[in-house]
Amino acid sequence: MGMINKTYTGLKGLLSGMGLTLGYFFRFDKVITQQYPENRESLKLPARARMQVELVRESSGDYRCNGCGVCVRACPNGSLEVVRGKDPVTKKPTLEKYVYHFERCTVCGLCVDSCASESLGMGRKFENAVYESSQLTMILNADAIAKKAAEAANAPAVPDVSTTPAKTEPAATPAPNQPTKAA
Amino acid sequence: MHDFLYNTDQFVLDLTKRLDSAIGIPWVVDLVKMSIAAVLLVGLASMLGMVLIWIERKVAAHMQQRLGPMRVGFHGIFQTVADTLKLLAKEDFTPADADKFIYTLAPLIAFVASFTCLAFVPFGPSLQAANFNVGLLFLLGISSVGVLGLLAAGWSSNNKWSMLGAMRAGAQIISYELSAALALVVAVIFTGTLDFQEIVRSQQAGWWIWRAPVVGLLGFVIYTIASTAECNRTPFDIVEGESELVAGFHTEYGAMKFAMFFLAEFVNVFIVSAVSATVFLGGWMPFHIGGMEGLNSFFNLIPPWIWFFGKVMALIFVVMWFRWTFPRLRVDQLMQFEWKFLMPVSLATVAVAAVLATGGWFFFNEGNIPTPPALIQPIAPSAP
Hints:
Chain A has 183 residues and is an alpha+beta fold.
């Protein structure tokens, strides 16, 4: 009797396993493989994918970061640099330039955890292949700097806080973010 | 014009006649016929290797919610062609301490053993390279020689993993051969013949899987299990056991020698499925239900060899399905399963089958066969 019982339960287990795999076999919509270069447009990243550090924007479009620099101290391998400025009106420190050395970053996320104002986040850009590691050094608020520079150029001379007009960098900095389209 | 698709008997006869009139010398005619069959079977074997590997990878992928090969050709159909070319172009390597002669001979033994079996597979009426009255017995004998190849490969490689794999192969294949043969005996008791064509013809009224009450189904299941073990496929792949033995007996093999083992494995899968289809599922016989003439004549439209390949492919799918569902057995579990369970069950099945066969207690027994459906001359579709 014991043998029959064992045979029955064993067979039941095997058949239910076969049912499961057969179910998967016919469910083409459940396939999780992503054919990456072809489906770049519709690529679905895992919900918890974190690829590189990004600055969080307010709904107004400005960056939320106030340049306190806690993240710089939290970073174990010195891949963050914050250049602080001072708001001419409120005299509060502001973010001047946020330099991100992605070539040193291990995407540990300690900076994001440490940020008190929740102005850092993990972005989902991952096509970061470049020819030289120096190209991975990026300025995260490059567009804000460019905007400021443009305003400074257009507006009549105001006592200027932004350091020098040598903000030609921003034009070059987005380049590393672009995936190499060669080949 | 389409006649040769259906009436392969006539086709083979015509071919012989033409060869006779063209050549005239009997032994040359035989030689030419043998060469034709050999070339066709070599083509079939290599095609089987490539197609089955592709199917296997696709089945594996979809059972694991993946896509499998997708890049070479439409849905990767040329992936195995590319792989074969790669294997052909690779350096033919022999380990320094290997027994070179046996090392080279082993893949040949394994491949020849499984390739020879193809000669006995009845693809259709008269579509059989070698037909003689003990075909089934001969096939079982020849296929057992394959294990010699595995043993030789493991021994000559001079590698502990190979040796272990080979020893496991020997123990496993020899054990499971008993159950496989006993399961086939169940059907042989009912048919009373070992001739493949006769076995197929005996199933005109119904396939043995259900015509022999219960024991047919039981025999079929036992044969499926035992033959999976004989092919060294998962759940019984302790012979290769990637996680334990690197690759088992073919650890040291590369290039075409490895390809030979691989090919032999897939030809073996085809052979056991073909035997199972022939003995239990009616071989090239179309599926018929007594009394339903419309359905029967519709099934007659499908040529016998397509029926055969359809059944074989279905069985191969089941074997692949096993592979991607079941976990691997331990060595002791494997032996225990065979000697303490499968073997007694198959012996009991044979005993019951013997009683049923001598008593004539099976469906569609000689006396009450309604009228055997016309199979040898199926209705050919009118030419377009």
